[in-house]
């Protein structure tokens, strides 16, 4: 039985990774902060490990003793994504862990460079930590979670105005994978030793913004007026304008993702779904007919200013 430690085990994605790993017969250790222990669901093969990445490598070390794979699904600013994950990596090195999946789970952030996206930059800095590490890095890229991409932060759907907004011509395919499907793929990848030292791309569905609008109209049974907001060049200019004007990164970071999605640099390459045939991802149509129907009516609660987004 493979032993996997999951950091961020109480989060939206991490909790589902834990469930999928248990379903696949893994022995799972859940790194969980004291304040969040109650969020864990009991299971005979699940061991709660109370700790915080901020505790440092020495304190984290005993949690990773005997662990083969570490999966991180934490979220936060540089103190978590860079400093905290580095402490976990140092602990994993000392314990002889084979592989670590960092908390990337994004568009193909290694398809573009520094300065395009502030949250990608944190993950890129952490990825460099593996250059001198004995632990092999396995990065998982999935494209956009529709749970966020169709939420208020991305400014695509506006249910009150009945509009669907597009930057660029709307014809370039974009990569979309739901949170449950990302968790299912990640559990399979975590238990697949072939992924050591690789960036693994998997996807739910690829479709253009114009096709996505058709899916939204079909699922909602209503018309969504197409708003063409400008070219991708205009989008880049809007990001820069907001960076100077914004009081919080929440006001521009979603558009930073869209720059890389719509100029194609973040497109997934060498998609490996075929390596995991038992993971059958949800189509966008099925997502919109189920949980995704909430996008048509329920506005998301605005985030507190200055808070690092839990996701984009
Ligand atoms: N591709 C996309 O469109 C997309 C969208 C959203 C998210 N994501 C990515 O998915 C990943 C997971 O995001 P999420 O939305 O699932 O995050 P989330 O729900 O906010 O969960 C974050 C988890 O990290 C834990 N955590 C935070 N700081 C910690 C620390 N110092 N020590 C230990 N644990 C800590 C939290 O614990 P507590 O329960 O104690 O707070 C929680 O379990 C992130 O890499 C995110 O960028 C991608």
UniProtKB/TrEMBL annotation:
Protein name: NmrA family NAD(P)-binding protein
Signal peptide (UniProt feature, chain positions): none
GO molecular function (one): oxidoreductase activity
Residue ranges annotated for the NmrA-like domain, each copy included: 3-106
Transmembrane segments: none
One matching Pfam family: NmrA
Alphabetic keyword roster: NADP, Oxidoreductase
InterPro entries in the record: NAD(P)-bd_dom_sf, NmrA-like, NmrA/Isoflavone_reductase-like
Source organism superkingdom: Bacteria
